[in-house]
User: Fold WxcM-like domain-containing protein from Bacteroides clarus.
Amino acid sequence: MNDIFILPKIADSRGNLSIIEEMKQIPFKIKRVYWIYDVPGGVERGGHAYRQNEEFIVALSGSFDVCLDNGKEKKVISLNRSYMGVYIPKGIWRVMNNFSTNSLALIVSSIDYDEKDYIMDYEEFLQYSTTSDRF
Assistant:
């Protein structure tokens, strides 16, 4: 599975424009959008998985790493271009770290916020991940 998606980039003398449309550039309908910014040096975000939620993450400004774990395999994806994003299917543990100064992460989600959808304990995630085969 290719996790990195290259978004359309329209460039002209006025600058660049990129777009995300549901069921076109990303494989789900958009229910929620949020962003992470002003992350202090050395701090990690995420540290959880979702039972149902799918996400698409873009570095609108700056750079950061997205560390993905399916319970069997781990991979690190560095995001540093506003026309590139990473798709994270449900059931994948994710941690975001190595945020550069003034970085801005845009996260597009497939469901509304639901605290019950989160798996916050890594050991619970490992038990859950044995029933899935994602990546």
About this structure: The chain has a mean pLDDT of 95. DSSP finds one helix and twelve strands in the chain.
